[in-house]
Amino acid sequence: MLPDPLKTLKGQLIVSVQADDGSPLRGTPHIVALSRAALLGGAGGLRLRSASDIAAVRAVTGVPIIGLTKQSHLNTEIYITATPDEVRGVAAAGADLVAFDGTDLPRPFSVAELVRAAHDAGVLAMADISTLAEALSAYKAGADIVGTTMSGYTPHSPQLPAPDFELMAQLREAGLPFIAEGRLNTPDLAALAQQLGAWAVVVGSAITRPDHVTRWFADALRAEKEQH
Ligand SMILES: CC(=O)N[C@H](C=O)[C@@H](O)[C@H](O)[C@H](O)COP(=O)(O)O
Question: What are the Cα distances from residue 97, in Å, to 4, 27, 38, 146, 219?
Answer without folding.
Answer: 10, 22, 19, 11, 36
